[in-house]
């Protein structure tokens, strides 16, 4: 049966509704052992002794591993293209953050492993430590200028109107539906690792390197990943430990990390500080931005240079921009990427500062933004592949009813006495490309298998890939299997940076064209209404298979080589002849209850442009999800870190507060759906991350409009408004 594709339901909805075991830890394996880690109870120091006697005595315990068992693990910090924690726990006696695994118990049951992990008795020689970037022991690295256009200092010094402010964001933690886990199985010299990862290819290389295996003898399977917003980019800290244990024991081993440990060992959004100076003329033209970012980092982390200014320097046509950044080293677990890792914090700072400028000038915040739109990229002078920020702002203003806004803060009051605030902010996110391999195998009997580079992380990767294929080829939709996130299928890539869909769309187009050419070579073109299966049947060909290795725009074959080595081969947002970004404008209404100052967000309007929309349903969901997370970041989420112990005090979903359904009002999403043929033949750019960029700033700007309070840190809580 052939079905219309554009707004198709999720093609994996049925598997999910039926509760099929789709996540890595759900796959039943014969002889499976269960593992549990023992977390360090100090934040820095050395292990002097480990007594495992009581743990070993628990019935069902198979083995208790300590750092002495794992000293053969090689630490290969560069293997994930630098995008990897530089510290591998349990390879020595050093403790470098609170909660670091110091023992791994493997047992016949989860209960035995958990009980025994508690009984591992570790003696430490504790050292002093620094738990947050505000503590005196924090070690700032030197500032580095990462974007410089024009002479921002001179332009700022002569500006008629200036804003200077510091904005701060708290440490945030992913809390994926799929828990952090690793299941490893070593048999006949082959290691198979099942783990929810966005980067199965690099993970294979890193795991092989760490364990001294040939990468060809390792497969990483992540066919579904239950939430992949950057936390699953890296080789997770438990991963090679579990693989090593499976190799040593000759049985499959599974570790599912308890949520409280996830807060201490899994990658998270680091806290950051943003110092902005912004200069403008009296008519609202922004002339200069001097913007310094500081981000906390682990003492031993190889977190590569950050990237805060790539986006903020392109929000507007700011002729003079100097962006500097530095890392501040503390004793924490390695931070990492979390949805729009630089663009969300950066847009909070910039878009609040722009709002402060509008207030100072007495200008409407939408009009000010439109007056500063850019015709060309102010950093490189190149054209944008597409620039629709002005359209997003204008359309959003109309949908929201912005013209009815009364400018004075606190001047809009609801019937129940609540203060009404209307805020706006814009967001942009790079349009990147990546090599993508697609192998298409179509059978005369109706079965089609598409093997694809890319990971299904819940965003609907299979749905957009399937819809794209079905637009190009008349295949049986119900018998289409899409294999992705699986190193045994085709060469995988790192699915992040909102580049998965654009790369897949381009590769699918190429493989479909190649397939049609191959079919034509075999025996004439398709007749109208004829499916490719029928054609194969008529040709007496049971199966036809073709493969393409599609490069990202402007990439050469060396990108594929990088990929084969397990590296990261990304290109963009700067290309030889243009720069490319996705765009969004958020309009937010808040209501602040007059006595308790409780903040509600009854409605949001977001207008986004991600090029051609491949699947309206999944793209709309992504934008809504980004807005929800923006509201969470703005009003709820913060790790509460105890400076005396380095412990995250709210390490569970009861105390690490995220928005629930009752916190979310109406979120209206409109997608401009303007194809971007300059970026790729499919006209597609990413939407997953731009969705969140600017959302928190729009909330903060709305809170200011409601109350007159300019809160320059996130999250904004009731106590900030008392
Ligand atoms: Mo994303 S933070 O690029 O996985």
TrEMBL record:
The record's Gene3D superfamilies line, in alphabetical order, gives: Aldehyde oxidase/xanthine dehydrogenase, a/b hammerhead (3.90.1170.50), Aldehyde oxidase/xanthine dehydrogenase, molybdopterin binding domain (3.30.365.10)
Provide a Gene Ontology MF annotation, just one: iron ion binding
Q: Where is the Aldehyde oxidase/xanthine dehydrogenase a/b hammerhead domain?
A: 18-128
Going by the UniProt record, its keywords in alphabetical order are: Molybdenum, Oxidoreductase
The record's SUPFAM superfamilies line, in alphabetical order, gives: CO dehydrogenase molybdoprotein N-domain-like (SSF54665), Molybdenum cofactor-binding domain (SSF56003)
Give the range the annotation lists for the signal sequence: none
Query: Where does the source fall among the domains of life?
Result: Bacteria
What PANTHER family does the record point to? Answer: ALDEHYDE OXIDASE 1-RELATED, XANTHINE DEHYDROGENASE
Can you say what this protein is called?
Xanthine dehydrogenase family protein molybdopterin-binding subunit
């Amino acid at each position: 049966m052939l079905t219309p594709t554009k707004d198709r339901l999720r093609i994996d909805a049925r598997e999910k509704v039926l509760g099929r075991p789709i996540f890595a830890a759900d796959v039943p394996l014969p002889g499976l052992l269960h593992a549990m880690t023992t977390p360090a109870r100090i934040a820095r120091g050395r292990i002097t002794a480990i007594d495992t006697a009581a743990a070993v005595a628990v019935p069902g315990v198979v083995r208790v591993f300590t750092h002495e068992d794992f000293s053969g693990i090689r630490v290969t910090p560069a293997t994930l293209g630098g995008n990897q924690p530089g510290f591998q726990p349990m390879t020595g006696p050093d403790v470098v953050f609170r909660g670091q695994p110091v023992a791994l118990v493997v047992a016949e049951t989860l209960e035995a492993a958990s009980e025994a992990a508690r009984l591992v008795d570790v003696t430490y020689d504790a050292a002093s430590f620094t738990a947050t970037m505000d503590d005196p022991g924090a070690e700032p690295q030197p500032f580095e200028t990462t974007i410089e256009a024009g002479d921002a200092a001179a332009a700022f010094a002569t500006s008629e109107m200036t804003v200077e402010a510091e904005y701060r964001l708290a440490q945030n933690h992913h809390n994926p539906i799929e828990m952090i886990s690793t299941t490893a199985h070593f048999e006949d010299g082959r290691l198979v690792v099942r783990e929810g990862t966005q980067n199965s290819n690099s993970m294979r290389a890193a795991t092989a390197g760490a364990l001294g295996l040939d990468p060809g003898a390792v497969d990483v399977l992540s066919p579904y990943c239950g939430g992949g917003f950057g936390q699953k980019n890296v080789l997770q800290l438990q991963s090679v430990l579990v693989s090593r244990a499976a190799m040593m024991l000759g049985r499959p081993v599974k570790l599912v990390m308890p949520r409280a440990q996830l807060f201490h060992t899994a990658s998270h959004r680091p806290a950051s500080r943003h110092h902005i100076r912004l200069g403008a003329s009296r008519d609202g033209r922004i002339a200069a931005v001097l913007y310094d970012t500081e981000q906390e980092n682990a003492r031993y982390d190889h977190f590569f240079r950050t990237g805060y200014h790539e986006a903020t320097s392109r929000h507007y046509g700011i002729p003079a921009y100097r962006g500097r950044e530095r890392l501040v080293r503390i004793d924490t677990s390695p931070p990492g990427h979390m949805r729009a890792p630089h663009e969300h914090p950066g847009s909070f700072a910039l878009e609040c500062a722009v709002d402060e400028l509008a207030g100072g000038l007495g200008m409407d915040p939408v009009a000010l933004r439109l007056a500063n739109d850019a015709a060309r990229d102010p950093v490189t002078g190149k054209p944008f592949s597409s620039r629709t920020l002005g359209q997003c702002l204008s359309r959003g203003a109309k949908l929201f009813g912005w013209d009815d806004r009364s400018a004075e803060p606190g001047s809009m009051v609801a019937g129940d006495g609540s203060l009404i605030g209307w805020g706006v902010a814009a967001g942009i996110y790079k349009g990147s490309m990546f090599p993508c391999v697609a192998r298409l195998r179509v059978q005369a009997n109706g079965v089609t298998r598409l093997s694809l580079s890319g990971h299904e992380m819940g965003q609907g990767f299979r749905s957009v890939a399937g819809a794209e294929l079905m637009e190009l080829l008349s295949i049986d939709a119900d018998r289409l299997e899409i294999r992705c996130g699986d190193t045994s299928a085709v060469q995988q890539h790192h699915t992040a940076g909102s580049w998965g869909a654009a790369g897949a769309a381009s590769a699918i187009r190429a493989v479909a064209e190649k397939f049609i050419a191959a079919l034509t070579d075999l025996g004439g073109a398709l007749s109208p209404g004829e499916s490719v299966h029928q054609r194969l049947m008529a040709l007496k060909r049971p199966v036809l298979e073709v493969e393409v290795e599609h490069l990202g725009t402007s990439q050469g074959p060396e990108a594929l080589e990088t990929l084969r080595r397990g590296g990261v081969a990304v290109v963009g947002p700067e290309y030889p002849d243009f720069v490319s970004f996705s765009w969004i404008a958020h309009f937010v209404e808040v209501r602040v209850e007059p006595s308790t100052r409780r903040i509600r967000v009854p409605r949001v309007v977001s207008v986004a442009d991600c090029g051609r929309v491949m699947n309206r349903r999944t793209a709309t969901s992504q934008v809504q999800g980004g807005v929800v997370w923006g509201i969470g970041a703005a009003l709820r989420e913060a790790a509460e870190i105890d400076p005396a112990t380095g412990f995250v005090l709210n390490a569970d979903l009861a105390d690490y507060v995220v928005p629930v359904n009752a916190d979310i009002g109406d979120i209206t999403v409109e997608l401009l759906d303007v194809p971007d043929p300059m970026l790729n033949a499919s006209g597609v750019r990413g939407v997953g991350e731009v969705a969140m960029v600017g959302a928190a700033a729009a909330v903060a700007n709305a809170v200011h409009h409601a109350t007159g309070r300019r809160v320059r840190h996130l999250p904004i809580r009731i106590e900030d408004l008392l």
